[in-house]
């Protein structure tokens, strides 16, 4: 096999015992870096002894060996792999094999490489998901209607879940579509639950958003009913699909009184809720198993009984017209976390915690969209002549959509009708984005503006009208294009 096969190597390090005897197989000493790769960054593999370069064998279903250059050091203990163009986006499993000078063979090692997704400004989506065709004489099949799909959708190796807010339906696709015309495998419209009298009753979905699968369960929020719905199992057609709801009839600010819940997210066994109108993010240290399970932490407030907007002094009101700060929130709508860091999207800013909160009312470390923590202006710019105009640093109603692969950040800038992409994790406030989807430049902001004239046209695969949710999965970006009643799939180049 051509030595250029050497490309496909893992991104984790190994601590192995050196064995240089003729009877011992070679081992991998290290593989660096351990982070997500981007651009033409190099991948280095070190072995515990000299190996035969021409014996190196790697196997991958998704990486092309001809797209990489390979350089060995003088004693053949190290190989450096560099892409000719860029690392293909997404995750790639590879298997490494090699022999030492005595023909002892390395026990095959299977690992994953993870790389940044690669997009260009104004890129066409590879596919769109719209309402399924109906019987003759009907425009769409009612149960398969996708209408105003607010919020981020959920995708994993088992398939794609789309929450259609406007039609109160939940759509399942066994694969993330690669082309137009994909049809849902099935649609969920209701679930079984216990009423106040502990009797089983069927309840229709009521404004579902942000489906999320974890531990063999499906969770979602219902904006209209102000609740979290926890399914016992993944819902299927023609089944009872039992679930319980977390909510309360109380009008008082409390741990379980949600007001306009917008998004949920789960990581490391935790559950996060963007409780928008209560101006907070609630955190359960484990997935609730009962409707009465209360959260353990709150972000944006110092207790579960405070719910006011930008309430820095925690007076319980905003009568003093307090401004935004690093630890207050005003209608948070989007969430993402890897268990170590936390992103929260609200109106015109994204707050970044570089360490996951371990107490109430913890200050964020960075802010995107604003020059500092005390501003929440739409399309903010410190230059008075440009203030109010879109740029690569600001937002106009960042609604619902925030996601990351651990290195890149993706945000749906709803009223600028675009998705903004940061190719590296920001290290300073007001950091500029690198790529924009939905517009040809960062200064354009028309809806469905395919010719970039400033006027709306018919929707195409590269324009948007009020996007409000974004999800990254493998080599794809999934965008909820709300006012066009569709979901767009962008594939990494």
What does this 3D model show about the protein?
With 493 residues, this protein is mainly beta. It folds into two domains: 3-115, Immunoglobulin-like (Sandwich), CATH 2.60.40; 127-491, TolB, C-terminal domain (Neuraminidase, 6 Propeller). Helix content is 0%, strand content 34%. The protein has no helices and 33 strands. It has a four-stranded antiparallel β-sheet, with no helix packed on it. A four-stranded antiparallel β-sheet has the order 8-33-32-31, with no helix packed on it. A four-stranded antiparallel β-sheet has the order 9-10-11-12, with no helix packed on it. It is globular and about 75 Å long. 44% of the residues are buried. Residues 1-20 have low confidence and may be disordered.
Top keywords for this entry?
disordered N terminus; 2 domains; 493 residues; 34% strand; 0% helix; 4-stranded antiparallel sheet; Immunoglobulin-like; mainly beta; Neuraminidase
User: Which sequence of strands runs across the widest sheet?
Assistant: 1-2-5-4
Number of strands: 33
Net shape: globular
Mean pLDDT: 91
Structural class: mainly beta
Query: How many domains, as an integer?
Result: 2
Major sheet description:
4 strands, antiparallel
Percent of residues in beta strands: 25-35%
N- and C-termini, Cα separation: 26 Å
Radius of gyration based on Cα positions = 25 Å
Uncertain spans, ≥5 residues at pLDDT below 50? Answer: 1-20
CATH architecture level-2 label of the largest domain: 6 Propeller
CATH topology title of the largest domain = Neuraminidase
